């Protein structure tokens, strides 16, 4: 049954990709391309779809892994504060106007900020030879508040034009997608995903609790540290590619659990496909509803995601409670 | 064959353990679990039952002394190898993510690269949960949930099962159900079991009991010799009177309020 459902999702993804490439916001006939259309297709739409899919994939997969590591179905990759570190560092670059690495400045500083916060969260979450879920969560929340406050302070004293650009980035700006960003972004996201794949059984065991995971033959602290690294890599790379996209990391694992069950070996790859699909759909809607104005994808995912999430919450069998 | 039968599976030698510095919680504990034994670990709350089981499973390491599994130091085993020999089920079996029964039971195969002969369906059949195989764990009754986890341990194939209060929060129907299942596993699958409990009347029906107080063994052996009124009164700090109903049946009376 789960194979049929995954096939169904892949079909939706293909349909979304084709629509994004050739139909929206303006129709392009792939069989009769002029120079402008060729440029739009290969320099704008293709990289944008790739970035949207990669970001969604990273957020969906890292959300599913994080919910297992923290044993908390309400966890979202951003709860670890990784996004707040990326936002603050990206905002500093945008607001100060110092693009020292050219078009790579924002992704680079965002990745640096995200990685730095991951290390800080790991530092505060570490005790007696290992990472502890409650400490990770509290460290993430604490650091998020701190960075968010500094971000708000910076934004409140900044001039208008740069402020608008910062806000756009914070809500997920896929318009900056560029071919040049994709190899590096995908390297980190795929590395994080491969790390997870090698520890998928350990993640299932950790969901049962530390004592049962130990009884099943896993080194609890080692596995949790490796999975935390996997989450950090995927989330940091995702944020640096296109900003903060809310709800994907929280919502998609729940949706996918309904379709494929809770076994992380299937759930996490399914959440990657689901996250990629959802973000491509959100981007498609964002650029199609009132062209030429684009609505940031983070707003669309929250508008689609919240009602669906609340619907799922009412269904007893989905959360198993 | 006789040497295997006489060999102890798990051996505690002068084991001490402290949660806090300068405050020993488990004192100089020496005992062994032999092949095909079913031992009840009886004591009041905070007496050290759970700590002893955690030391036996390798979750905690002794501060002094040693714990040996099949004659080798427990911590010298690789995690995966240890998991094929002993299995521990904690008292609290909460499930924040909604796994189904079949998904949970199949996790018992994780220590193995080559899948053993017992299948998920067989394990579910043994614990009587075939019809609930697609149910969410959270939707099972307390007894069914406990049986699902026991099915997982069956796939794990360990010869020693350590259970922390498997009868806690279960009504008498499920308590009897779990005890029958465990006794059947001991007899048919030759699994040795050590389980913590604090119900004296249930303990009276065990073949072997270890009575614990303040991290020390008050007595170990047949309940008829270990569970006397004096010993139980000392262990629980409540006056316990043993009353004989028939030649085979005794019950403890302690409801003096």
Segments of chain B where pLDDT lies below 50 for 5+ residues? 1-5
By secondary-structure content and strand pairing, the structural class of chain A works out as mainly alpha
Please give the radius of gyration of chain A in angstroms.
19 Å
Class inferred from helices and paired strands of chain B: alpha/beta
State the share of residues found in helices of chain B, binned by percent.
25-40%
Widest beta sheet: strand line-up of chain A: 1-2
Alpha carbon gyration radius of chain B: 19 Å
Strand content of chain B: 25-35%
Uncertain stretches of 5 or more adjacent residues of chain A? none
* Element-by-element helix/strand order of chain B: HEEEHEEHEHHHEHEHEEHHEE
Biggest β-sheet strands, sense, barrel of chain B: 6 strands, mixed
Helix content of chain A: over 70%
Q: Rough shape of chain B?
A: globular
Report the count of strand segments of chain A. 2
Number of strands of chain B: 12
Question: Which two chains have the most extensive interface, and how many residues on each?
Answer: A-B, 29 and 35 residues
* Order of H and E elements of chain A: HHHHEEHHHHHHHHHH
Largest β-sheet summary of chain A: 2 strands, antiparallel
The average pLDDT value of chain A, as a whole number, equals 85
